[in-house]
Amino acid sequence: MKYSGTFLTLFLCLALLVTAAFGAQVIDDTVAEVGAFSGKVFIVRDGERFHVSEGTKLRVGDRIVTDSAGTVKLHHRDGSTMYIGTSSSLIIMAPMKLSLIEGTIKADTMAALEIDTQDGRNVTAPIEGAGFIVRQSAEGIEVMALSNNVHMGRTKVAPGMYAIAGKGQAPTFRIVPDFEAAEMFADVGGGSDRAIAEEVAPLGFSPAAGRQGSGTPTPKALPAVGND
After folding, report:
1. What is the DSSP string of 65-114?
2. Distance CA 27, CA 9 (A)
3. Which residue of 15, 58, 99, 184 could cross-link 91, Cys pair, CB 3.0 to 4.6 Å?
4. Is 187 within a domain?
């Protein structure tokens, strides 16, 4: 009887450990974490909005919103990094699928990535190691390929090429050198040799509107929860 009780205790302990380990895997639904940021960056989750802080864990369904001075770097679990520019809004649809409502994303991928846009033409990086920038605005979609091919709908955009397409229109292309990309997409670090620095704030440049501001304030953590 004594041995039976000991065996039962050991069995129950093992069962609890297995359950705890399995539960931890189920609960950990993190797809990315917040890195360096500047300005105001919000997460909308389950109808509530709160400020991010460095290390904030993101999951499927989260909406990320930046204000006119806000930028944020995201670290994905597979090693991919993404830079979200000023005045942006996007939703995490799946671990490597985003819905870009407005604004700019710069991606350096370690896995295939798909970004839905508002006119139905998805921007995809079908292989790992692709670097590209995509901007969604009222005028349409802009894509800048930095390394490896990416696709705007069914159209391939080769490295060094810039493509722009208005709603319902075929894209037009031109070669854009790094220095010009750095100006066009300053809020996410610009060209391939200008990955956004941890301490550098956005310049807020838009090809349509021109330069709207400058400066390099140091990113600072905001309160974890807020309604303003």
Report:
1. EE-TT-EEEEEETTS-EEEE-TT-EEEEEETTEEEEEEEEEEEE-SS-EE
2. 27
3. 99
4. yes
Q: What is the pLDDT of residues 88-142, one digit of tens each?
A: 999 999 999 999 999 999 999 989 999 999 888 899 998 778 899 999 988 899 9
User: Residue 6, SS3?
Assistant: helix
Range of 47's domain? 30-211
Give the separation between CA 29 and CA 58, rounded to whole angstroms. 8
CATH number at 38 reads: 2.60.120.1440
- Assess if residue 151 is contained within a domain: yes
Distances (CA, A) of 143 to 79, 81, 166, 184: 22, 17, 12, 11
Strands 41-45 and 30-38, by their bridges, are unpaired
CB of 66 closer than 8 Å to CB of 39: yes
DSSP character for 197?
P
> Using an 8 Å Cβ cutoff, are 68 and 57 in contact?
no
Considering the domain boundaries, does residue 8 fall inside one?
no
Two structure tokens written together for 85: 């520019």
Rounded Cα–Cα distance for residues 174 and 70 (Å): 29
Q: What angle do CA 3, 7, 8 make, to 5 degrees?
A: 115
CA torsion 52→126→123→86, rounded to 10°? 30
Flag whether pLDDT at 37 surpasses 90. yes
d(CA 163, CA 175): 9
Query: Residue 216: inside a domain, yes or no?
Result: no
Task: Give the DSSP letter of residue 24.
Answer: H
Total domain count for the chain? 1
